Amino acid sequence: MKIELIKAPSETFLEMLLNNVRPPTRQRLDKKQWGAVGLVQARLIDLYWAADIAEKASSVKTALVMGNCPQHIQMLAIFGKQAAVQASLNKIRESYHG
Description:
alpha+beta; Alpha-Beta Plaits; four-stranded antiparallel sheet; 4 strands
């Protein structure tokens, strides 16, 4: 599992990221100011688990970021205020047993 934190994401970063999110989820996330975005890259089963942990740990929204095809490694994006995203990423790190 690879984890990154993007503080104060740029409009270009958010545009690139949201272009790879399914339309219903994109509508829920688009046009909002996000203080930070956490990125978690892992196996699909671990991403579903991480999304659940992240949203239970703090006030964040999650989205699965799709690759070019289902066989590629996928990624989870965690959107929220910087402290909330950091808290979610910390909880994922300390709880992961993969």
